[in-house]
Amino acid sequence: MLLAGLEAPDTLVAELAGLLRTKGLEETADTLENALADGTVFVSLAPGDRDAILQALEDCPYGLAELETVVLLQSTWGAEPALAGQLAD
User: Fold this and answer.
1) What is the rounded distance in angstroms from the CA atom of residue 16 to the CA atom of residue 22?
2) If you ran DSSP here, which 8-state letter would residue 64 be given?
């Protein structure tokens, strides 16, 4: 599955969903679990999903470290549109 533009094995997506649930972030956990159940290839993350994933990945397992970095960058770029504009110049 592609999650935040990264290939993420189903086992890690399931682990992430579990981490989300332990933090009480049910909506994003449901999104990931439903995508796994449906065999979804690409999961688009809303800003709230990115925030939830960052909370869940504070002390992330090794396999999810790259996802944490990408989601953090996406959140930063989304929160700072001027930064994205400066990169395009």
Assistant:
1) 10
2) G
Length of the chain: 89
pLDDT in tens, 47-76: 889 889 888 877 766 666 666 666 666 665
Q: What pTM does this model have?
A: 0.69
Phi, psi of 60 (to 5 degrees): -75, 155
The two tokens of residue 4 are 């935040």
Strands (E), the chain: 2-3, 6-7, 42-43
Region 21-40: mean pLDDT is 95
> How would you class 1 by CB atoms within 10 Å of its CB: exposed for 0-12, middle for 13-18, buried for 19 or more?
middle
